[in-house]
Amino acid sequence: MEAGELGTYMFFACAFATLLQHPGSPVRHLLSHEAHRRIFMGLAMGVTAIGIVLSPWGKQSGGHFNPAITLAFYRLGKVDPWDVVFYIIGHFLGAVAGVTLAALLLLGAPADHAVRYAITAPGPYGPLTAFLAEAAISFVLLLTILFVSNRRDLARCTPYLAGTLIAMYMAFESPLSGMSTNPARTFGSALFAGYWYGLWIYFIAPPLGMLAAAEIFLRVRGGIGPYCAKLVHAADKRCIFPHGTEDLLHRTGPRRFSGCRRVPS
Question: b/e per residue, 57-70, with b = 16+ CB within 10 A?
Fold first, then answer.
């Protein structure tokens, strides 16, 4: 499921990038300003991310489709080690599969120099700025997910707020780093484009940013971890993650439920 989710995300990333950037696309000529194309790309990918998280697969697997998110939830004690291994393998396989599908169905159009398989690359301010930007946006993304998904009155808003952040990042941050927050997402595009410059940024900065967010979350809550590793606590979907008894997790210890039937206060 996680592979399928990131594969879907990558397919649409390549498809929308082709639609907006390819010289032969009429949309590119309608939206002649780069900033306008970034805004539409952000809206498209934000809606895509929301749809993936709210899909049956997203509700069951947790809707991570990002190795950095999975690693952060592992640090928070919500993902078992073997699940981390297979989730991350799924993410990288899914990213490659999604770009492959886009290349086949779009008849090679994503390979055009203006599209380059929707790669993420450091902007004109250099690798250090890109690194700091990736760490910052990853930090904010996960911190938002953690605090919102662990409030009973706000939990249902989690996918929409995460999608909104993705849309804003693509519209306004992408000139700095290309907007990734996701090592597997960057790898999938880089593999097909043969573009490896700055790859270390996207393998290090997003996990660091999200692990920092996890630490802040724990400190603010006095060491109490999140309810579980899902972005949507769907009561009708099987859950493989360790659960806590709401705010008493640190005293009751982890438990496994057949579904996410409660959301913590």
Answer: bbbbbbbbbbbbbb
